[in-house]
Inverse folding.
Protein backbone atom coordinates (compact mmCIF):
# COMPACT_ATOMS: atom_id res chain seq x y z
CA UNK A 1 0.00 0.00 0.00
CA UNK A 2 1.39 3.44 -0.85
CA UNK A 3 -0.14 6.87 -0.42
CA UNK A 4 -1.47 8.31 -3.72
CA UNK A 5 1.21 10.00 -5.80
CA UNK A 6 3.59 10.26 -2.83
CA UNK A 7 6.70 8.22 -2.44
CA UNK A 8 6.21 7.35 1.22
CA UNK A 9 4.52 4.52 3.07
CA UNK A 10 1.10 5.20 4.59
CA UNK A 11 0.96 6.37 8.20
CA UNK A 12 -0.16 4.46 11.31
CA UNK A 13 -3.82 5.42 11.20
CA UNK A 14 -4.16 4.57 7.47
CA UNK A 15 -2.56 1.16 8.00
CA UNK A 16 -4.75 0.49 11.04
CA UNK A 17 -7.78 0.91 8.75
CA UNK A 18 -6.59 -0.63 5.45
CA UNK A 19 -3.54 -2.84 5.82
CA UNK A 20 -3.84 -6.33 4.32
CA UNK A 21 -7.33 -5.99 2.87
CA UNK A 22 -8.49 -5.30 -0.69
CA UNK A 23 -12.32 -5.06 -0.99
CA UNK A 24 -12.11 -5.82 -4.73
CA UNK A 25 -11.13 -9.39 -3.90
CA UNK A 26 -14.21 -9.95 -1.74
CA UNK A 27 -17.25 -8.66 -3.67
CA UNK A 28 -16.37 -5.05 -2.86
CA UNK A 29 -17.23 -5.50 0.83
CA UNK A 30 -15.64 -2.50 2.55
CA UNK A 31 -15.78 -4.15 5.98
CA UNK A 32 -13.86 -7.46 5.87
CA UNK A 33 -16.18 -10.50 5.98
CA UNK A 34 -16.21 -12.75 9.03
CA UNK A 35 -15.34 -16.34 8.08
CA UNK A 36 -17.40 -18.34 10.58
CA UNK A 37 -16.12 -21.79 9.77
CA UNK A 38 -14.30 -24.41 11.81
CA UNK A 39 -12.95 -26.44 8.88
CA UNK A 40 -12.08 -26.25 5.16
CA UNK A 41 -12.77 -28.70 2.31
CA UNK A 42 -10.39 -29.75 -0.48
CA UNK A 43 -10.72 -30.70 -4.17
CA UNK A 44 -8.66 -33.81 -3.54
CA UNK A 45 -6.61 -35.54 -0.86
CA UNK A 46 -3.41 -34.20 -2.47
CA UNK A 47 -4.60 -30.59 -1.95
CA UNK A 48 -5.03 -31.16 1.77
CA UNK A 49 -1.55 -32.68 1.95
CA UNK A 50 -0.08 -29.67 0.07
CA UNK A 51 -1.60 -27.27 2.61
CA UNK A 52 -0.46 -29.43 5.51
CA UNK A 53 3.13 -29.46 4.23
CA UNK A 54 3.11 -25.68 3.53
CA UNK A 55 3.64 -26.34 -0.24
CA UNK A 56 0.48 -24.39 -0.90
CA UNK A 57 -1.12 -21.57 1.08
CA UNK A 58 -4.49 -22.43 2.50
CA UNK A 59 -6.50 -23.32 5.57
CA UNK A 60 -6.98 -26.76 7.07
CA UNK A 61 -8.67 -26.39 10.47
CA UNK A 62 -9.84 -23.42 12.51
CA UNK A 63 -7.81 -24.08 15.65
CA UNK A 64 -4.59 -22.86 14.03
CA UNK A 65 -5.77 -20.40 11.36
CA UNK A 66 -8.80 -18.60 9.92
CA UNK A 67 -8.91 -15.85 7.25
CA UNK A 68 -10.46 -13.24 9.59
CA UNK A 69 -7.86 -14.03 12.25
CA UNK A 70 -5.12 -13.94 9.56
CA UNK A 71 -6.12 -10.43 8.48
CA UNK A 72 -6.02 -9.24 12.09
CA UNK A 73 -2.58 -10.84 12.51
CA UNK A 74 -1.22 -9.21 9.34
CA UNK A 75 -2.52 -5.80 10.43
CA UNK A 76 -1.16 -6.11 13.97
CA UNK A 77 2.25 -7.26 12.68
CA UNK A 78 2.36 -4.27 10.37
CA UNK A 79 1.51 -1.78 13.14
CA UNK A 80 4.04 -3.34 15.54
CA UNK A 81 6.79 -3.57 12.87
CA UNK A 82 6.98 -7.37 13.28
CA UNK A 83 7.52 -10.07 10.68
CA UNK A 84 4.63 -12.19 12.00
CA UNK A 85 1.87 -12.40 14.60
CA UNK A 86 -0.26 -15.10 16.18
CA UNK A 87 -3.57 -14.00 17.73
CA UNK A 88 -5.15 -16.15 20.46
CA UNK A 89 -8.16 -16.22 22.79
CA UNK A 90 -6.85 -14.01 25.63
CA UNK A 91 -3.75 -12.23 26.86
CA UNK A 92 -3.08 -15.13 29.25
CA UNK A 93 -3.44 -17.55 26.31
CA UNK A 94 -0.68 -15.53 24.62
CA UNK A 95 1.56 -15.69 27.72
CA UNK A 96 0.91 -19.42 28.21
CA UNK A 97 1.27 -20.38 24.53
CA UNK A 98 4.54 -18.43 24.32
CA UNK A 99 6.13 -19.79 27.49
CA UNK A 100 5.07 -23.40 26.95
CA UNK A 101 6.30 -23.32 23.34
CA UNK A 102 9.70 -21.75 24.04
CA UNK A 103 10.66 -23.22 27.45
CA UNK A 104 11.56 -26.81 28.40
CA UNK A 105 12.65 -28.60 31.55
CA UNK A 106 15.96 -27.21 32.94
CA UNK A 107 15.63 -23.95 31.00
CA UNK A 108 15.71 -20.65 32.88
CA UNK A 109 13.62 -17.51 32.47
CA UNK A 110 14.54 -14.14 33.97
CA UNK A 111 11.45 -12.10 34.87
CA UNK A 112 10.88 -8.65 36.30
CA UNK A 113 9.89 -9.03 39.96
CA UNK A 114 6.51 -7.30 39.43
CA UNK A 115 4.14 -8.73 36.82
CA UNK A 116 0.41 -8.81 36.04
CA UNK A 117 -1.07 -11.00 38.81
CA UNK A 118 -1.85 -14.05 36.64
CA UNK A 119 1.48 -13.90 34.77
CA UNK A 120 3.04 -13.67 38.23
CA UNK A 121 1.17 -16.83 39.30
CA UNK A 122 2.16 -18.63 36.08
CA UNK A 123 5.85 -17.89 36.68
CA UNK A 124 5.84 -18.53 40.46
CA UNK A 125 3.38 -21.43 40.75
CA UNK A 126 3.19 -23.25 37.37
CA UNK A 127 6.53 -23.02 35.53
CA UNK A 128 8.59 -24.46 38.46
CA UNK A 129 6.31 -27.54 38.42
CA UNK A 130 7.63 -28.28 34.93
CA UNK A 131 11.28 -27.99 35.97
CA UNK A 132 11.73 -24.48 34.58
CA UNK A 133 13.79 -22.17 36.79
CA UNK A 134 12.33 -18.67 37.23
CA UNK A 135 14.76 -15.92 38.22
CA UNK A 136 12.96 -12.75 39.41
CA UNK A 137 15.01 -9.54 39.47
CA UNK A 138 14.37 -5.81 39.50
CA UNK A 139 14.76 -4.90 35.82
CA UNK A 140 14.30 -1.19 36.47
CA UNK A 141 18.05 -1.58 37.16
CA UNK A 142 19.21 -3.49 34.02
CA UNK A 143 22.67 -4.05 35.55
CA UNK A 144 21.00 -6.76 37.72
CA UNK A 145 20.93 -8.91 34.56
CA UNK A 146 24.68 -9.46 34.85
CA UNK A 147 24.31 -11.84 37.77
CA UNK A 148 21.02 -13.36 36.58
CA UNK A 149 21.65 -14.60 33.02
CA UNK A 150 23.24 -18.03 32.66
CA UNK A 151 23.85 -20.32 29.68
CA UNK A 152 20.42 -21.84 30.39
CA UNK A 153 18.51 -18.54 30.16
CA UNK A 154 16.10 -18.75 27.23
CA UNK A 155 13.82 -15.77 27.90
CA UNK A 156 13.96 -12.39 29.63
CA UNK A 157 10.37 -11.36 30.29
CA UNK A 158 8.88 -8.08 31.49
CA UNK A 159 6.02 -5.62 31.07
CA UNK A 160 6.57 -1.96 30.34
CA UNK A 161 4.76 0.03 31.55
CA UNK A 162 4.24 -2.61 34.21
CA UNK A 163 1.02 -3.86 35.75
CA UNK A 164 -0.14 -2.61 38.22
CA UNK A 165 2.43 0.07 39.05
CA UNK A 166 3.03 1.62 35.58
CA UNK A 167 6.78 1.50 36.22
CA UNK A 168 8.89 1.79 33.08
CA UNK A 169 11.71 -0.57 32.07
CA UNK A 170 14.38 0.60 29.63
CA UNK A 171 14.02 -1.87 26.73
CA UNK A 172 17.20 -0.75 24.93
CA UNK A 173 19.26 -1.00 28.14
CA UNK A 174 17.98 -4.55 28.80
CA UNK A 175 18.73 -5.47 25.16
CA UNK A 176 22.26 -4.07 25.44
CA UNK A 177 22.97 -6.09 28.63
CA UNK A 178 21.49 -9.31 27.18
CA UNK A 179 23.20 -9.06 23.78
CA UNK A 180 25.44 -12.09 23.10
CA UNK A 181 23.62 -14.12 25.79
CA UNK A 182 21.34 -15.94 23.34
CA UNK A 183 18.35 -15.17 25.57
CA UNK A 184 15.32 -13.68 23.87
CA UNK A 185 13.73 -10.54 25.25
CA UNK A 186 9.94 -10.62 25.49
CA UNK A 187 8.04 -7.41 26.26
CA UNK A 188 4.40 -7.38 27.33
CA UNK A 189 3.44 -4.02 25.82
CA UNK A 190 -0.27 -4.21 26.76
CA UNK A 191 -0.23 -0.93 28.77
CA UNK A 192 1.09 0.99 25.75
CA UNK A 193 -0.35 -0.45 22.47
CA UNK A 194 1.68 -0.27 19.24
CA UNK A 195 0.73 3.36 18.70
CA UNK A 196 2.47 4.43 21.91
CA UNK A 197 5.42 1.99 21.98
CA UNK A 198 7.05 -0.52 19.62
CA UNK A 199 9.50 -2.65 21.66
CA UNK A 200 11.04 -4.38 18.60
CA UNK A 201 12.49 -1.00 17.54
CA UNK A 202 14.36 -0.89 20.86
CA UNK A 203 15.90 -4.38 20.70
CA UNK A 204 13.17 -6.73 21.99
CA UNK A 205 12.75 -10.03 20.11
CA UNK A 206 9.08 -10.70 20.86
CA UNK A 207 6.13 -8.52 21.86
CA UNK A 208 3.00 -9.66 23.63
CA UNK A 209 -0.37 -7.92 23.97
CA UNK A 210 -3.58 -8.54 25.77
CA UNK A 211 -5.81 -7.34 22.90
CA UNK A 212 -8.60 -7.21 25.48
CA UNK A 213 -7.27 -3.77 26.47
CA UNK A 214 -6.37 -0.76 24.27
CA UNK A 215 -6.12 -2.57 20.93
CA UNK A 216 -9.75 -3.69 20.99
CA UNK A 217 -10.55 -0.76 23.25
CA UNK A 218 -14.23 -1.36 23.90
CA UNK A 219 -14.28 -3.80 26.80
CA UNK A 220 -16.43 -6.34 24.99
CA UNK A 221 -14.13 -9.33 24.35
CA UNK A 222 -10.93 -11.11 25.38
CA UNK A 223 -7.97 -11.75 23.07
CA UNK A 224 -4.19 -11.77 22.96
CA UNK A 225 -1.29 -11.83 20.50
CA UNK A 226 2.43 -12.55 20.24
CA UNK A 227 4.52 -10.81 17.58
CA UNK A 228 8.08 -11.31 16.35
CA UNK A 229 10.11 -13.25 13.76
CA UNK A 230 8.23 -15.67 11.49
CA UNK A 231 9.98 -18.87 12.67
CA UNK A 232 9.25 -18.24 16.37
CA UNK A 233 5.67 -17.21 15.73
CA UNK A 234 5.17 -20.34 13.61
CA UNK A 235 6.47 -22.43 16.53
CA UNK A 236 4.07 -20.75 18.96
CA UNK A 237 1.17 -21.34 16.54
CA UNK A 238 2.04 -24.91 15.54
CA UNK A 239 2.91 -26.06 19.09
CA UNK A 240 1.56 -23.67 21.74
CA UNK A 241 -1.72 -22.83 20.06
CA UNK A 242 -2.29 -26.06 18.13
CA UNK A 243 -1.64 -28.73 20.77
CA UNK A 244 -0.65 -27.16 24.12
CA UNK A 245 -3.24 -24.49 24.93
CA UNK A 246 -5.68 -24.81 22.00
CA UNK A 247 -6.72 -21.26 22.87
CA UNK A 248 -8.07 -20.16 19.49
CA UNK A 249 -9.48 -16.71 18.85
CA UNK A 250 -12.99 -16.67 17.40
CA UNK A 251 -13.42 -15.07 13.93
CA UNK A 252 -16.11 -12.78 15.40
CA UNK A 253 -13.69 -11.51 18.05
CA UNK A 254 -11.00 -10.97 15.37
CA UNK A 255 -13.46 -8.85 13.38
CA UNK A 256 -14.43 -6.77 16.42
CA UNK A 257 -10.78 -6.15 17.30
CA UNK A 258 -10.13 -4.85 13.77
CA UNK A 259 -13.13 -2.56 14.15
CA UNK A 260 -11.67 -1.22 17.39
CA UNK A 261 -8.20 -0.84 15.87
CA UNK A 262 -9.48 1.62 13.27
CA UNK A 263 -9.60 4.27 16.00
CA UNK A 264 -6.55 3.13 18.03
CA UNK A 265 -4.45 6.24 17.37
CA UNK A 266 -7.37 8.64 17.99
CA UNK A 267 -8.25 6.88 21.22
CA UNK A 268 -4.67 6.72 22.48
CA UNK A 269 -4.21 10.47 21.94
CA UNK A 270 -7.37 11.29 23.92
CA UNK A 271 -6.54 8.70 26.62
CA UNK A 272 -3.08 10.25 27.09
CA UNK A 273 -4.35 13.85 27.14
CA UNK A 274 -6.79 13.10 29.97
CA UNK A 275 -4.35 10.83 31.84
CA UNK A 276 -1.68 13.53 31.82
CA UNK A 277 -4.15 16.01 33.36
CA UNK A 278 -5.30 13.49 36.00
CA UNK A 279 -1.73 12.45 36.93
CA UNK A 280 -0.65 16.07 37.35
CA UNK A 281 -3.74 16.84 39.45
CA UNK A 282 -3.09 13.82 41.69
CA UNK A 283 0.59 14.73 42.10
CA UNK A 284 -0.41 18.18 43.40
CA UNK A 285 -3.20 16.95 45.72
CA UNK A 286 -2.53 17.12 49.49
CA UNK A 287 -4.27 13.77 50.20
CA UNK A 288 -2.04 11.89 47.72
CA UNK A 289 1.21 10.33 48.99
CA UNK A 290 2.68 9.30 45.62
CA UNK A 291 1.78 8.96 41.90
CA UNK A 292 3.38 6.87 39.16
CA UNK A 293 2.67 7.86 35.55
CA UNK A 294 5.34 7.48 32.84
CA UNK A 295 5.09 11.04 31.54
CA UNK A 296 5.00 12.81 34.92
CA UNK A 297 7.80 15.40 34.55
CA UNK A 298 10.54 14.95 37.13
CA UNK A 299 9.50 11.34 37.88
CA UNK A 300 12.09 8.57 37.78
CA UNK A 301 10.46 6.97 34.72
CA UNK A 302 10.17 10.17 32.66
CA UNK A 303 13.54 10.07 30.82
CA UNK A 304 13.26 6.42 29.75
CA UNK A 305 9.55 6.78 28.92
CA UNK A 306 10.25 9.69 26.58
CA UNK A 307 12.84 7.62 24.72
CA UNK A 308 10.58 4.63 24.08
CA UNK A 309 6.99 5.92 24.25
CA UNK A 310 5.07 8.53 22.23
CA UNK A 311 2.93 9.48 25.24
CA UNK A 312 2.36 8.23 28.77
CA UNK A 313 -0.65 6.10 27.66
CA UNK A 314 -3.45 6.18 30.25
CA UNK A 315 -2.47 3.85 33.08
CA UNK A 316 -1.24 5.18 36.40
CA UNK A 317 -0.91 4.06 40.01
CA UNK A 318 -1.08 6.14 43.16
CA UNK A 319 -1.31 5.86 46.92
CA UNK A 320 -3.10 8.04 49.47
CA UNK A 321 -1.65 9.27 52.75
CA UNK A 322 -4.59 7.41 54.34
CA UNK A 323 -3.19 4.08 52.98
CA UNK A 324 -5.25 0.91 52.44
CA UNK A 325 -8.38 2.12 54.25
CA UNK A 326 -8.17 5.49 52.50
CA UNK A 327 -7.96 3.75 49.11
CA UNK A 328 -11.11 1.71 49.79
CA UNK A 329 -13.05 4.75 51.06
CA UNK A 330 -11.96 7.00 48.19
CA UNK A 331 -12.82 4.39 45.55
CA UNK A 332 -16.27 3.84 47.07
CA UNK A 333 -17.00 7.58 46.73
CA UNK A 334 -16.38 7.60 42.93
CA UNK A 335 -19.52 8.15 40.88
CA UNK A 336 -18.34 8.16 37.24
CA UNK A 337 -15.25 5.95 37.34
CA UNK A 338 -16.12 2.24 37.60
CA UNK A 339 -14.63 -0.02 40.26
CA UNK A 340 -13.56 -2.83 37.93
CA UNK A 341 -10.55 -4.89 36.91
CA UNK A 342 -9.27 -4.66 33.29
CA UNK A 343 -8.08 -1.53 31.54
CA UNK A 344 -7.85 0.28 28.22
CA UNK A 345 -11.61 0.67 27.75
CA UNK A 346 -13.63 3.78 26.84
CA UNK A 347 -14.92 3.66 30.45
CA UNK A 348 -12.47 4.75 33.17
CA UNK A 349 -11.75 1.83 35.51
CA UNK A 350 -10.15 1.75 38.94
CA UNK A 351 -8.96 -1.18 41.07
CA UNK A 352 -7.15 -1.85 44.33
CA UNK A 353 -4.95 -4.97 43.94
CA UNK A 354 -4.36 -5.52 47.70
CA UNK A 355 -8.04 -5.93 48.61
CA UNK A 356 -8.64 -8.32 45.68
CA UNK A 357 -5.57 -10.43 46.49
CA UNK A 358 -6.63 -10.66 50.18
CA UNK A 359 -10.06 -11.85 49.08
CA UNK A 360 -8.57 -14.43 46.69
CA UNK A 361 -6.28 -15.78 49.43
CA UNK A 362 -9.37 -16.92 51.38
CA UNK A 363 -10.01 -19.54 48.69
CA UNK A 364 -6.53 -19.93 47.22
CA UNK A 365 -4.08 -19.50 50.13
CA UNK A 366 -1.09 -19.96 47.78
CA UNK A 367 -1.94 -16.65 46.02
CA UNK A 368 0.72 -13.97 46.52
CA UNK A 369 0.73 -10.28 45.75
CA UNK A 370 3.44 -9.58 43.16
CA UNK A 371 6.64 -8.19 44.68
CA UNK A 372 6.82 -4.41 44.64
CA UNK A 373 3.03 -3.94 44.92
CA UNK A 374 2.18 -2.04 48.09
CA UNK A 375 -1.05 -2.27 50.13
CA UNK A 376 -2.02 1.31 49.33
CA UNK A 377 -1.57 1.01 45.54
CA UNK A 378 -4.60 2.08 43.48
CA UNK A 379 -4.50 1.36 39.72
CA UNK A 380 -6.35 3.78 37.48
CA UNK A 381 -7.18 3.30 33.77
CA UNK A 382 -8.27 6.63 32.33
CA UNK A 383 -10.99 6.21 29.70
CA UNK A 384 -12.46 8.45 27.02
CA UNK A 385 -14.96 10.46 29.06
CA UNK A 386 -14.54 14.28 29.11
CA UNK A 387 -11.36 15.18 31.00
CA UNK A 388 -13.16 17.70 33.22
CA UNK A 389 -15.75 15.12 34.29
CA UNK A 390 -12.97 12.72 35.30
CA UNK A 391 -11.11 15.43 37.22
CA UNK A 392 -14.34 16.41 39.01
CA UNK A 393 -15.13 12.83 40.02
CA UNK A 394 -11.65 12.18 41.41
CA UNK A 395 -11.56 15.55 43.20
CA UNK A 396 -14.88 14.93 44.97
CA UNK A 397 -13.79 11.40 45.94
CA UNK A 398 -10.50 12.71 47.35
CA UNK A 399 -12.23 15.48 49.30
CA UNK A 400 -12.98 13.19 52.24
CA UNK A 401 -9.58 11.50 52.23
C1 LIG B 1 -0.07 -6.56 31.26
C2 LIG B 1 -1.07 -7.64 31.05
N1 LIG B 1 -0.69 -8.77 30.41
C3 LIG B 1 -1.56 -9.78 30.22
C4 LIG B 1 -2.86 -9.72 30.69
C5 LIG B 1 -3.78 -10.88 30.47
O1 LIG B 1 -4.72 -10.54 29.47
P1 LIG B 1 -6.20 -11.19 29.38
O2 LIG B 1 -6.97 -10.63 30.52
O3 LIG B 1 -6.65 -10.76 28.03
O4 LIG B 1 -6.02 -12.67 29.49
C6 LIG B 1 -3.29 -8.57 31.36
C7 LIG B 1 -4.67 -8.48 31.88
O5 LIG B 1 -5.02 -7.60 32.63
C8 LIG B 1 -2.37 -7.50 31.54
O6 LIG B 1 -2.72 -6.38 32.18
Amino acid sequence: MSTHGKNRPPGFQTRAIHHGYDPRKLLGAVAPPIFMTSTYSFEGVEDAAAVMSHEREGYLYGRTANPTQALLEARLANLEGAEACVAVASGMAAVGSLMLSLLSQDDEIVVHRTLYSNTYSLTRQALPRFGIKVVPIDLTDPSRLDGAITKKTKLIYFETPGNPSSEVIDIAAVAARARNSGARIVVDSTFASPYVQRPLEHGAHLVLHSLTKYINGHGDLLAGAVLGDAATIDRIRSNGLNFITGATLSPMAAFLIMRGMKTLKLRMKQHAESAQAVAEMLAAHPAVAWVRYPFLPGSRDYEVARRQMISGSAMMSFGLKAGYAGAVAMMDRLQLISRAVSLGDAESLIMHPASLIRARQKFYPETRMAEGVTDDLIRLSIGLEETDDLLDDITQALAGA
